[in-house]
Amino acid sequence: MSTQTNPRELAALVKDMVFSGDKAKQNQVRQIAASNGVFPASIQDLYEAIGKDRYSGFSVPAMNIRGITFDVARAAFRAAIKNKVGAFIFEIARSEMSYTLQTPGEYAAVVVGAALAEGFKGPVFVQGDHIQINRKNYYADSQKELNSVRSLIKDCVEAGFYNIDIDASTLVEIDKSDLLAQQEANGQVTAEMTKFIRSIEPKGITISVGGEIGEIGSGNSTVGDLKAFMSVYRKYLSPNMKGISKISVQTGTTHGGVALPDGMIAKVKLDFDTLEKMSKMARAEYGMGGAVQHGASTLPDDLFDLFPKVGTLEVHLATGFQNIILDSLNFPGPLLEEIHTELKTKYAAERKPDQTDTQFYYSTRKKSFGDFKQKLWDIETAKLQKIGQELEDRFALLFTKLNVVNTQEIVDKVIKPL
What we know:
By secondary structure, the chain is of the alpha/beta class. It has one domain: TIM Barrel. It is 53% helix and 11% strand. The protein has an 8-stranded parallel beta barrel with strand order 2-3-4-5-6-7-8-9, surrounded by 6 helices. α2 packs parallel to α6.
């Protein structure tokens, strides 16, 4: 295939790559993209510039795509091109890679392929989200668990993930009275993973590394938590080594939202004051870009305008896109019924006694993106295009509310290809 390819040929290549698992085809897609001005990049330099107050007033959306990734990413790139957006991230978490059956190599290649198909040019930010330490596994055999995480990070970096979020917040010992003691294991492991990332990052690239101080779904983070974490983290980090560029905090959200019996999502009280204080401290005292908000995609639309206003660096979005796909009137009804039947059978043990069918489907249906991966990709083109338009409209709205419209010029100025 030539370096100049049409979307139909590219779509066929990408689909073949996805379902063959052929790493040579992953490389082929990346090479075609690179030859057409699409390249994976680290957002480090932009976050450093934000930390120095060179830029402000926008929050970078980080978007997790769990299924039909080529079509969803194409919708995001269409919205980005129309709105001249450069500051946006595609990401996937360690857990999502497992239940959606997407390896780092596949995910990164599909994303740059989608950029190419839509005519996007420039840096594409792909991120390992929640590269999380499993608490149970860590305390059973810490080195085995850490080696497993190192292996995943290596796979991510080799695939073009030049942005890695280490999540060792699972190791926070909240029962200890001293904040330093609470954050000891978290800070130490995050420092160890930072050192590992620096040892394998490609020449000329400084990977953007994120840390996390409060496990999402637990009590809200405090300024004291951040100070304690950074004290421990710096103690274990090698002298003169570049550290994390951002810090994820807990402000009252829950990943995916909480479904009520009637299917509505429970309202949450988001602590924007915490976000503002954390972001200011992260920039002023530690040279980071700011604080990161997780679990935001199911929040009411009128809250998104507030993230840039309080200096939130990055906002993570996932379940909302999943909901658009599966709740769309254009999603095939028979396939949705098949998914529900499979969920009831395969994940029956995960059902809580008081859950309605609606609540159970909502809490487990993310796994259908792996279980029904082929059938989702095989949805007829006309229906996929209509779902894609719904997603494009959503991406455009989020880009506008997070104020990343017209950031393409900033990104092109700050982020340079090798």
